[in-house]
Amino acid sequence: MEIKAIKENYLKQKESVINSKEVNELRINFLGKKGIVNELMSKLKTLSSEEKIEFAKEVNLIKQFISEDIEQLMSDIKKRELNERLAKEAIDLTLPGRDYKSKNKHPLNLVIDEISEICIGMGYKVEEGPEVELDQFNFEMLNLPKDHPARDMQDTFYIDGRTLLRTHTSPVQARVMLKSEGKPIKIICPGKVYRRDDDPTHSHQFMQIEGLVIDENVTLADLKGTLAYIIRSLFGEKREIRFRNSYFPFTEPSVEVDVSCFNCDSKGCSLCKQTGWIEVLGAGMVHPNVLTMAGYDTNKYQGFAFGMGVDRIAMLKYGIDDIRHLYSNDLRFLNQFGGNK
Length: 341
Fold this sequence. Notes:
Layout: H1 2-14, H2 20-31, H3 36-40, H4 49-88, H5 107-121, E1 125-126, E2 132-134, H6 135-138, E3 163-165, H7 170-180, E4 185-194, E5 205-215, H8 220-235, E6 241-248, E7 251-260, E8 277-286, H9 288-293, E9 302-309, H10 310-318, H11 331-334
Parallel strand pairs: 1-4
Antiparallel strand pairs: 2-3, 4-5, 5-9, 6-7, 7-8, 8-9
């Protein structure tokens, strides 16, 4: 009789339950450690052996009934609550979208887009790679073995003994050369690079674009013609370029490339430091060791590479006197630039 009364009591309380919180309270009230059903078990000690068996059987049945019923009740209420929330939070897809005006492009993006467009027009492909790079690709495959003194030129941020934040986008070239399996390639590699610098003309993070061409009968004349076209497209048709001897471990011969000053037309000004020339990039013929490590036959293939700092090009084109302006996110600075699409 008592068990029957518990069932009726449960069904009566169940009728007033309206949310998942109240379902949990109902569960605790009847099935919790100190709940109504578990309290019945304390009466077993007052019963005979035969009565215990029958009573325990009835308790288990009511416990199973309430447990299964609460589980179903919880499922039904959660579905109802979900549907109510979805109806309340529904989005009216028939409403017109908001008209957001596109903002000015960042000057670095303007320069990257312009150089990429120039190079793609000459048949180059754009390749990208990881910014967290292996020492193998950042240095070793570029003719910079461990303990090579030229590594000091690219003091960087190491993560551990074999991984680092890349110091240039040249590792992308190394990866592409391996992937190309000794076949001709013509690529540019834009992206972020990192070095331990921080002053008005240097930043610990800056943007770089490098180019690489590998094919048969590639010469220094091809490099000069390519760079002349890129520089004149960037700074004007009247610009001349000048090669100066330099040293890079991954090219031989290596050159620094100057452009005739576009500010004073080579007459001498503060921008060109009265010389008539402005240094813009480094370049050279790909070192045979680099080609060999990437699986190229140096008797058949030659190549040239060039690299320019996007930040420096932007500073020259737009008259920016401090590289840190490019990374300060100051809207007063950024809103000066065009490039809306």
